[in-house]
Amino acid sequence: MKASGFMPEALFAFFANQDRHIRIARILLLRPPALLLDEPTSSLDEGTAERILERIVRSASRSGQSIVMIGHSPAAIRRLGDYRVTIEAGKVTEDAEVRR
C-alpha cells in the first residue's frame, strides 16, 4: 500500500512501524534458541524503542534465549546487555562484559 490520496503520509508511517512490531512479536512467539536482531528498534522513537527492547530482553530471559543484537545505542546496550563487542572501521575495538 502506498501513501497516496486515500492515506496521509503520517498514517502510512504509523502502519509501517506497526508492521515492525508485529514482525518482532511473531519471532518472539516462535521461541528460537537465539534471537539475531539487526537494529530492531531503528526508526522508532526513544520511548517506544526502550519498551520494545525491554520486552525482548524479558521474553528471552524467561525462555532461556540468547540475544545477539546489532545496535547503535551504547546506552541501551549498557542497560540491557551482558556482553558487548564494539567494531569500528571493520576492527574489534572492545570485547568485554558490560559494566553496570
TrEMBL record:
Protein name listed in UniProt: ABC transporter domain-containing protein
Gene3D superfamilies referenced in this protein's UniProt entry, alphabetically: P-loop containing nucleotide triphosphate hydrolases (3.40.50.300)
PANTHER family to which the protein is assigned, alphabetical: ABC TRANSPORTER, ATP-BINDING PROTEIN (PTHR24220:SF690), IMPORT ATP-BINDING PROTEIN (PTHR24220)
